[in-house]
UniProtKB/TrEMBL annotation:
It is a multi-pass membrane protein. It is found in: Cell membrane. The chain crosses the membrane at residues 12-32, 44-64, 76-95, 101-121, 133-156, 162-182, 194-213, 219-241, 262-285, 305-325, 334-355, 367-386, 398-419, 425-446. It comes from the Bacteria. This is MFS transporter. The keyword Transmembrane helix applies. Keywords: Cell membrane, Membrane, Transmembrane, Transmembrane helix, Transport. Its main location: membrane.
Amino acid sequence: MVARGGRGLVPLLAFLGVMAYSLSMAVVTPALPQIQDGLDTTPAGAAWALTAMTLSAAVATPVVGRLGDLYGPRRVLLAVLAIATAGMVVAALAANVAAMLAGRALAGIGGGVFPLAYTIIRDVIPPARTASAVGLMSSMLGLGGAVSWCLAGPIIDLLGWRWLLWVPVLGLVPGIALAWWIVPRSAPREAARVDWWGAALFAAWLVAALTALTEGMDWGWTSPGVLGLLVLSAVTAAAWLRVEGRVAEPLVDLKVMRTRGVWTANAASLLSGYALMAGGLLFPLLVQLPEGTGYGFGGTATQAALLQLPASIGMTAAGMTAGLLDRRIGSRTVLLGGAVMTGLGYAFVAFQHAAMWQLYVGGLARGIGLGFAYAAVANLVVAAVPQSETGVATGINTLIRTVGASLGTQVSAVVIVVVPGEGGYTTGFAVSAAVMAAVLPLALLAPRRRRSPGGDVLVLDEAPRAGRTALSP
């Protein structure tokens, strides 16, 4: 039963929650120069306003997903939204960098809305409509980025950068009230336990790895700090794997992660995350390079943001339609088509980037392709796991996408430094096209579908485990 509200409002709340979180994640990116000046810090200090939230979200997402699986998504969602709102308020009021980072780290816990939203959708939406809802959910990432870039300029110019940080709060506060009102209550699993040792070790190796990845350019890839973090990550990861293989109720069921529908989707998520953020770095930098370079456009930050807008809208629209395509051709084929479109978009701008219209064409193809790919991998994961594992499985998938995004930013930055001049951008676009080409075999390895005599769509995968339904969304 839906608590004091209509069942149809539940997915709407999930969409709004994910949208508000996506906006809070992206909203500081266009304001980093103003944050640097306002808090009297360095460029690296301002960049940590984004990094702190990314690291926190990476750790929190699968942990929150697991808590939602164990104790029900409603109570966990309420806690997550409250913590994220408090974090955004602290960040908006921050008088120094330390307070800003603390607030952003708290806000990062809001990353748990993704797996919780997938769990809620799977619980309350009929199977025939689940794929459409999951696709729409995945599209919120692109929409959040688009909205943040559209709002950033006017708000910063007219009101100041702090007001930009208040915008997500306007979505999160009503979200708490709506969650209390309409999200259905669910009984916790009997004798449910949280694998806190596994969670601690998971956080340790992940934070060490992502910090090394984030700071590699500034510290140097062979610096003692980066190498030490990588060693720490490897040691704690080995300990985490040992713990997860021994406990009765692990944070992450490694057997589920080895399911063909899951590992192929996770690998595709890693590569798709790379493709998203590689373009997020390369396109704006190319637009803002001086015309005197012979290949730059001398554009403003606003022009760079407008270039991202069609791609974000295309990504949102593709995510909304991916669910309909899933019912007709399956998520496997949707992923294949998305990878092809994204790869072609990057390949086009690798060879043709002398005019702005060419960047718009390539960027739009990239956005639409990634919208299909993101929705497809989420649907593959949801279809492949037992309902009791939906939260943690989709949380891990979201985490892996974040790791891929970090790789896309760092590798592309290295490429344009190592390869001088225009060749750096050509190489960066070509590498992104090659990365999406690597998604093609993963899509072909993903489970096929067939129709039962009654018309239901079945996933051909490993034999169903106890508690798992063979019906795909």
